[in-house]
Protein backbone atom coordinates (compact mmCIF):
# COMPACT_ATOMS: atom_id res chain seq x y z
CA UNK A 1 0.00 0.00 0.00
CA UNK A 2 1.10 3.62 -0.38
CA UNK A 3 3.48 4.70 2.37
CA UNK A 4 1.15 7.54 3.33
CA UNK A 5 -1.32 4.92 4.58
CA UNK A 6 1.35 3.29 6.73
CA UNK A 7 2.52 6.41 8.60
CA UNK A 8 2.69 6.54 11.48
CA UNK A 9 2.90 2.80 12.03
CA UNK A 10 3.15 3.55 15.76
CA UNK A 11 -0.65 3.65 15.94
CA UNK A 12 -0.46 -0.09 16.55
CA UNK A 13 0.65 0.51 20.15
CA UNK A 14 -1.73 0.58 23.11
CA UNK A 15 -2.61 4.08 24.24
CA UNK A 16 -2.17 3.50 27.98
CA UNK A 17 1.54 2.65 28.05
CA UNK A 18 3.85 5.11 29.78
CA UNK A 19 6.76 2.69 29.50
CA UNK A 20 9.88 1.70 31.42
CA UNK A 21 13.43 0.42 30.90
CA UNK A 22 15.31 -2.13 33.00
CA UNK A 23 19.01 -2.13 33.84
CA UNK A 24 20.93 -5.40 34.18
CA UNK A 25 24.55 -5.88 35.21
CA UNK A 26 26.90 -8.78 34.85
CA UNK A 27 27.83 -10.46 38.15
CA UNK A 28 24.78 -8.98 39.89
CA UNK A 29 23.54 -11.92 41.94
CA UNK A 30 26.34 -14.32 40.99
CA UNK A 31 29.43 -14.79 38.84
CA UNK A 32 28.53 -13.97 35.21
CA UNK A 33 24.86 -13.72 36.16
CA UNK A 34 23.01 -10.79 34.61
CA UNK A 35 20.89 -9.43 37.44
CA UNK A 36 18.32 -6.65 37.35
CA UNK A 37 19.60 -3.63 39.28
CA UNK A 38 17.17 -0.85 38.39
CA UNK A 39 13.86 0.01 36.73
CA UNK A 40 13.92 3.34 34.92
CA UNK A 41 10.89 5.56 34.34
CA UNK A 42 10.56 9.18 33.28
CA UNK A 43 10.10 11.75 36.04
CA UNK A 44 7.18 13.25 34.10
CA UNK A 45 5.79 10.00 32.76
CA UNK A 46 2.40 10.06 31.09
CA UNK A 47 0.18 7.66 29.19
CA UNK A 48 1.29 7.00 25.61
CA UNK A 49 4.86 8.25 26.18
CA UNK A 50 6.28 4.89 24.99
CA UNK A 51 9.32 5.41 27.21
CA UNK A 52 11.70 2.55 26.44
CA UNK A 53 10.81 2.09 22.78
CA UNK A 54 14.49 2.72 22.10
CA UNK A 55 17.48 2.37 24.44
CA UNK A 56 21.24 2.74 24.29
CA UNK A 57 23.99 2.39 26.87
CA UNK A 58 27.64 3.38 26.90
CA UNK A 59 29.96 3.50 29.90
CA UNK A 60 28.17 5.29 32.71
CA UNK A 61 25.23 6.57 30.65
CA UNK A 62 21.86 5.26 29.57
CA UNK A 63 19.76 6.97 26.90
CA UNK A 64 16.07 6.10 26.67
CA UNK A 65 13.66 7.26 24.00
CA UNK A 66 10.01 8.19 24.55
CA UNK A 67 8.73 8.96 21.07
CA UNK A 68 5.13 9.38 22.16
CA UNK A 69 5.88 12.09 24.73
CA UNK A 70 4.27 15.52 24.48
CA UNK A 71 7.03 17.98 25.50
CA UNK A 72 5.65 21.46 26.17
CA UNK A 73 2.26 20.11 25.20
CA UNK A 74 3.29 19.33 21.61
CA UNK A 75 1.47 16.07 20.85
CA UNK A 76 3.75 13.19 19.86
CA UNK A 77 6.78 15.44 19.40
CA UNK A 78 8.78 12.94 21.45
CA UNK A 79 11.67 13.08 23.91
CA UNK A 80 14.71 11.18 25.14
CA UNK A 81 16.13 10.97 28.64
CA UNK A 82 19.78 10.78 29.73
CA UNK A 83 20.29 8.76 32.92
CA UNK A 84 23.76 8.44 34.48
CA UNK A 85 24.55 5.17 36.26
CA UNK A 86 24.42 5.63 40.01
CA UNK A 87 23.40 2.76 42.24
CA UNK A 88 22.04 5.18 44.81
CA UNK A 89 20.14 7.45 42.45
CA UNK A 90 18.92 6.15 39.08
CA UNK A 91 17.23 9.36 37.99
CA UNK A 92 17.31 11.31 34.78
CA UNK A 93 19.71 14.22 34.58
CA UNK A 94 18.75 15.60 31.18
CA UNK A 95 15.63 15.47 29.03
CA UNK A 96 16.31 15.95 25.34
CA UNK A 97 13.80 17.45 22.94
CA UNK A 98 14.20 18.90 19.47
CA UNK A 99 14.72 22.65 19.31
CA UNK A 100 12.18 22.80 16.47
CA UNK A 101 9.80 20.13 17.73
CA UNK A 102 6.47 19.69 16.02
CA UNK A 103 3.48 17.42 16.53
CA UNK A 104 4.01 13.75 15.62
CA UNK A 105 7.74 14.14 14.93
CA UNK A 106 8.34 10.90 16.92
CA UNK A 107 11.67 12.17 18.25
CA UNK A 108 13.13 9.37 20.36
CA UNK A 109 11.93 6.49 18.21
CA UNK A 110 15.62 5.62 17.85
CA UNK A 111 18.53 6.60 20.10
CA UNK A 112 22.27 5.98 20.38
CA UNK A 113 24.88 7.25 22.83
CA UNK A 114 28.66 6.94 22.67
CA UNK A 115 31.00 8.89 24.92
CA UNK A 116 29.94 12.51 24.95
CA UNK A 117 27.65 12.28 21.91
CA UNK A 118 23.98 11.35 21.75
CA UNK A 119 22.05 10.81 18.52
CA UNK A 120 18.25 10.81 18.44
CA UNK A 121 16.04 9.99 15.46
CA UNK A 122 12.70 11.61 14.61
CA UNK A 123 11.35 9.68 11.64
CA UNK A 124 8.09 11.64 11.59
CA UNK A 125 9.70 15.06 11.22
CA UNK A 126 8.98 17.12 8.12
CA UNK A 127 12.11 19.20 7.45
CA UNK A 128 11.53 21.98 4.94
CA UNK A 129 7.86 21.01 4.92
CA UNK A 130 8.60 17.63 3.32
CA UNK A 131 6.11 15.31 5.03
CA UNK A 132 7.69 12.60 7.19
CA UNK A 133 11.04 12.89 5.43
CA UNK A 134 12.56 12.51 8.90
CA UNK A 135 15.48 13.96 10.82
CA UNK A 136 18.05 13.10 13.47
CA UNK A 137 19.54 15.34 16.15
CA UNK A 138 23.06 15.38 17.60
CA UNK A 139 23.65 16.33 21.24
CA UNK A 140 26.95 16.73 23.03
CA UNK A 141 27.76 16.68 26.72
CA UNK A 142 28.94 20.06 28.06
CA UNK A 143 27.43 21.91 25.09
CA UNK A 144 25.82 24.91 26.74
CA UNK A 145 27.17 24.23 30.25
CA UNK A 146 28.98 21.70 32.43
CA UNK A 147 27.30 18.30 32.03
CA UNK A 148 24.55 19.91 29.96
CA UNK A 149 23.50 17.98 26.86
CA UNK A 150 23.07 20.59 24.15
CA UNK A 151 21.80 20.17 20.62
CA UNK A 152 24.64 20.83 18.18
CA UNK A 153 23.28 19.62 14.83
CA UNK A 154 20.16 18.55 12.98
CA UNK A 155 20.75 15.91 10.33
CA UNK A 156 18.59 15.50 7.25
CA UNK A 157 19.18 13.61 4.02
CA UNK A 158 20.65 15.62 1.14
CA UNK A 159 18.00 14.08 -1.13
CA UNK A 160 15.13 13.96 1.35
CA UNK A 161 11.72 12.93 0.09
CA UNK A 162 8.30 12.53 1.65
CA UNK A 163 7.81 9.44 3.82
CA UNK A 164 11.46 8.35 3.70
CA UNK A 165 11.38 7.77 7.46
CA UNK A 166 14.95 9.03 7.87
CA UNK A 167 15.83 8.60 11.53
CA UNK A 168 13.87 5.45 12.26
CA UNK A 169 17.24 3.93 13.19
CA UNK A 170 20.44 5.63 14.36
CA UNK A 171 23.91 4.72 15.60
CA UNK A 172 26.89 6.82 16.63
CA UNK A 173 30.51 5.97 17.36
CA UNK A 174 33.26 8.53 17.80
CA UNK A 175 33.02 11.04 14.97
CA UNK A 176 30.66 8.98 12.80
CA UNK A 177 26.86 8.94 12.78
CA UNK A 178 24.78 6.45 10.79
CA UNK A 179 21.09 7.09 10.09
CA UNK A 180 18.65 4.71 8.44
CA UNK A 181 15.77 5.62 6.12
CA UNK A 182 14.07 2.35 5.34
CA UNK A 183 11.29 3.86 3.21
CA UNK A 184 13.70 5.67 0.85
CA UNK A 185 13.67 4.93 -2.89
CA UNK A 186 17.34 4.71 -3.96
CA UNK A 187 17.67 4.62 -7.74
CA UNK A 188 13.90 4.92 -7.95
CA UNK A 189 13.37 1.49 -6.34
CA UNK A 190 10.27 1.85 -4.16
CA UNK A 191 11.03 1.53 -0.44
CA UNK A 192 14.28 -0.34 -1.04
CA UNK A 193 15.72 1.77 1.78
CA UNK A 194 18.94 3.62 2.45
CA UNK A 195 21.32 4.72 5.19
CA UNK A 196 23.37 7.90 5.45
CA UNK A 197 26.81 8.42 6.95
CA UNK A 198 27.73 11.68 8.67
CA UNK A 199 31.07 12.75 10.10
CA UNK A 200 32.00 15.40 12.61
CA UNK A 201 34.07 18.19 11.01
CA UNK A 202 32.87 17.26 7.52
CA UNK A 203 32.09 20.63 5.96
CA UNK A 204 33.47 22.70 8.83
CA UNK A 205 34.78 22.52 12.38
CA UNK A 206 32.34 20.54 14.54
CA UNK A 207 29.88 20.38 11.64
CA UNK A 208 28.21 17.02 11.15
CA UNK A 209 28.24 16.67 7.38
CA UNK A 210 26.82 13.94 5.16
CA UNK A 211 29.67 12.03 3.52
CA UNK A 212 27.93 9.14 1.76
CA UNK A 213 24.62 7.39 1.13
CA UNK A 214 24.48 3.61 1.44
CA UNK A 215 22.11 1.29 -0.42
CA UNK A 216 22.15 -2.42 -1.17
CA UNK A 217 23.83 -3.57 -4.40
CA UNK A 218 20.95 -5.99 -4.98
CA UNK A 219 18.12 -3.76 -3.76
CA UNK A 220 14.53 -4.62 -4.60
CA UNK A 221 11.22 -2.93 -3.74
CA UNK A 222 10.18 -2.93 -0.07
CA UNK A 223 13.50 -4.36 1.20
CA UNK A 224 13.44 -1.89 4.10
CA UNK A 225 17.23 -1.49 4.06
CA UNK A 226 18.04 0.89 6.92
CA UNK A 227 15.38 -0.31 9.34
CA UNK A 228 18.28 -1.10 11.69
CA UNK A 229 21.82 0.30 11.66
CA UNK A 230 25.00 0.04 13.69
CA UNK A 231 28.44 1.62 13.34
CA UNK A 232 31.69 0.79 15.16
CA UNK A 233 35.06 2.11 14.13
CA UNK A 234 35.52 1.60 10.39
CA UNK A 235 32.58 -0.78 9.92
CA UNK A 236 28.89 -0.04 9.36
CA UNK A 237 26.14 -2.67 9.42
CA UNK A 238 22.70 -2.04 7.90
Describe the structure.
The protein is an all-beta fold. The protein contains no helices and 16 strands. It has strands spanning 21-26, 34-40, 51-58, 61-66, 79-84, 94-96, 107-114, 117-122, 135-141, 149-155, 169-173, 176-181, 194-200, 208-214, 230-232, 235-237. The strands form 5 sheets. A 4-stranded antiparallel beta sheet has the order 3-4-5-6, with no helix packed on it. It has a 4-stranded antiparallel beta sheet with strand order 7-8-9-10, with no helix packed on it. The radius of gyration is 18 Å and the shape is globular. The chain starts with 20 loop residues before the first strand and ends with a strand. Mean pLDDT is 90; it is low at 4-15.
How are the strands of the biggest sheet laid out side by side?
Answer: 3-4-5-6
Question: In angstroms, what is the radius of gyration?
Answer: 18 Å
- Main sheet record: 4 strands, antiparallel
Q: Helical proportion? A: under 10%
- Outline: globular
Order of helices and strands: EEEEEEEEEEEEEEEE
State the separation between the terminal residues, measured CA to CA: 24 Å
Tally of DSSP β-strands: 16
Total helical elements:
0
- Determine the strand fraction and express it as a percent band: 35-45%
Low-confidence stretches: 4-15
Mean pLDDT: 90
Class from helix and strand fractions: mainly beta
Set down the secondary structure blueprint.
Layout: E1 21-26, E2 34-40, E3 51-58, E4 61-66, E5 79-84, E6 94-96, E7 107-114, E8 117-122, E9 135-141, E10 149-155, E11 169-173, E12 176-181, E13 194-200, E14 208-214, E15 230-232, E16 235-237
Antiparallel strand pairs: 1-2, 3-4, 4-5, 5-6, 7-8, 8-9, 9-10, 11-12, 12-13, 13-14, 15-16
Amino acid sequence: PPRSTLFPYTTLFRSDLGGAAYVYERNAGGVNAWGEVAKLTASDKAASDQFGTSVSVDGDLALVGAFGADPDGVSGAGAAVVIPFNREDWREKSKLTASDKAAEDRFGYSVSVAGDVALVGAYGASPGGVTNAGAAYVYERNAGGTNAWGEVAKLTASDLAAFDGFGDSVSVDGDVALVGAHWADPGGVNSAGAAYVYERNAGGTNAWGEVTKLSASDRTPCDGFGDSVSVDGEVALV
